[in-house]
């Protein structure tokens, strides 16, 4: 495997970004964070990318912030500076993933911890193997939540459950994570079933899915009438796409559409 901190592969419309520091449990060091952001910046403008997948090498998804750099600090001020730097950098990469325009999927075949858990749920969907685990256990290193937990987690599990997961630091197993909505799917035949799910998204009408994603995010801050008006405005642009014409034609011809992502 390459010695690069972040690997990028684009195949059949799916861009897979792999955190590649398994010896550090794929923690969000500066090298990894910058690698993710650079990869996403490059992938954002590519017409052949229809879905982004984020995963970790050799089992672990992401252990969160680079705690080893905290342990190396010699005094309180240096520790404060290091913690703040880690927060800033990990927050930046999580925000970049969350703001990616096209559909995103986190693919977990191991543990996502702390900021690594936020990185997972910053994606639109999370698919997991039966051995996957997730924890918002900032308390384990004596810290409060950061990097977006207070924004992302309650939107998925609700306020009370979010507080419980933070207060206990529970390492949530795949079945419970699925029940709570943290994982969209837990697969027994992980690679095969996850690939089928991801390909279903990648083969969809990309512009329409991108627009739907935008409308859903915007809907959190709107009342119903404003959300409907926003959808109507967004929909107008989608009517002009090739994929809308193909979808309408396929419907009339009683066949499956063959979307091209344009």
Automatic annotation (TrEMBL):
Gene3D superfamilies: 2-enoyl-CoA Hydratase, Chain A, domain 1 (3.90.226.10), Lyase 2-enoyl-coa Hydratase, Chain A, domain 2 (1.10.12.10). InterPro entries: ClpP/crotonase-like_dom_sf (IPR029045), Enoyl-CoA_hydra/iso (IPR001753), Enoyl-CoA_hydra_C (IPR014748). This is Enoyl-CoA hydratase. It comes from Halosegnis rubeus.
């Amino acid at each position: 495997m390459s010695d690069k901190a972040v690997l990028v592969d684009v195949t059949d419309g799916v861009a897979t970004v792999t955190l590649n520091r398994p010896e550090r449990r794929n923690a969000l060091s500066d090298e990894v964070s910058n690698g993710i952001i650079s990869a996403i910046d490059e992938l954002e403008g590519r017409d052949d990318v229809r879905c982004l997948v984020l995963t970790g090498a050799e089992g672990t998804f992401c252990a969160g912030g680079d705690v080893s750099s905290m342990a190396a600090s010699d005094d309180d001020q240096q520790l404060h500076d290091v913690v703040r730097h880690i927060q800033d950098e990990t927050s930046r990469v999580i925000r970049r993933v969350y703001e990616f325009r096209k559909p995103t999927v986190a693919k977990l075949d191991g543990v996502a911890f702390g900021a690594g858990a936020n990185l997972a749920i910053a994606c639109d969907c999370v698919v997991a193997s039966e051995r996957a685990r997730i924890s918002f256990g900032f308390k384990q290193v004596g810290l409060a939540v950061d990097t977006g937990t207070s924004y992302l987690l309650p939107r998925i599990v609700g306020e009370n459950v979010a507080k419980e997961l933070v207060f206990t630091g529970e390492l949530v197993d795949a079945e419970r994570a699925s029940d709570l909505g943290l994982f969209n799917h837990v697969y027994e035949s992980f690679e095969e079933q996850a690939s089928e799910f991801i390909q279903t998204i990648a083969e969809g009408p990309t512009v329409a899915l991108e627009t739907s994603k935008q409308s859903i995010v915007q809907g959190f801050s709107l009342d119903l009438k404003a959300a409907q008006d926003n959808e109507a405005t967004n929909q107008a642009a989608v009517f002009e796409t090739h994929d809308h014409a193909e979808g309408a034609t396929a419907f009339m011809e009683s066949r499956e559409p063959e979307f091209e992502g344009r």
